[in-house]
Amino acid sequence: MIKVFKSPAKYIQGPNILKTQLSEITRYGQAPLIVTDSFVWEMLGKEFCDDLLSEGLAPVLADFDGESSDEQIEKIREKNDPIDFVIALGGGKAIDTGKAVASGLKLAVVVIPTAASTDAPTSAISVTYDEEGFFKTYNYYDKNPDLVFVDTQILVKAPTRMLKSGIADGLATFIEVEAVAKASGKTLAGGAQTIAAYAIAKACEETLLKNARLAVVSNEAQAITPAFEAVVEANTLLSGLGFESGGLAAAHALQNSFSSLEGPIQRMTHGEKVAFTTLVQLILQNESEERVRSFIQLYQEFGLPTTLKELGITEMSDEALFVLCEKTITSQDTIQQMPMELTANDLFSAIKVTDAFVNGLNS
Ligand SMILES: [Zn+2]
Description:
By secondary structure, the chain is of the alpha/beta class. The protein contains 15 helices and eight strands.
């Protein structure tokens, strides 16, 4: 299989860059379309827009309702305002929508995340959701964002829950990339892994294990430290490059299945669901108890879910859970990249044992 590595053209990270490095953004054109939700607009979008206006730009605000549905993306694309490039400012759904709109219009896209909560900003992939907000599908674009612009002064003020979620998403990366390596599997970049992607994923895990605790304290204190900068880079750049060109496996496939469930789990972030499903993958591949325990301990320190109950799955029968496992196993999702033959029963057992193991440790 051929090797493929993808990445954004440029990545810039640092405190206050939205003020000091504005020319990095304005070089993409005169009329940016800004995709942002009303909360981020009030918080910093308005001021950012004023800054663009004073630089002589003519920004256009997209009619974005906060959901990343096909209808929404189509609606924004069809509006005939003359625009030169797209700026996606905000969380996961604004970023996914901005990437999708830019790809359809064949325009450059600048991604400005307002939290280090997922590794979505750097990739040429976005997730679409159905009308009820459930995971629908991955969309693959021709190219990655032209610029990923990460202002750590904004991120350090974001809720700590977001950073912790990003850490969980980032910690899944090397575990899944390792599984794909063992399987000689295919990545989301559309080919085999490169040595580069594997090394980046490994650096992601090392960086997070070394810096995660201090970074969370920095976030709580709203004070930027080298540990905070390191974790922002790991959550955003290292995890993003790692998962796209290194591959996803069981943890993310199960996350996608869990996202279709109703009830309290709907209030969980992507990273929170990934924390639990990463443990399931570790059990599935018979990882050492020491390694499993070290992940459980870190997740618990951060209040990330490690049991079905904490994940918000409290009223699901074994029969319903088994059906979910069957759907996951027979899907075209990334569980197919695991290095061993898996049945619905294997997955069901791993979920039950993860839950029982943590409950046993807790009691
Ligand atoms: Zn993820």
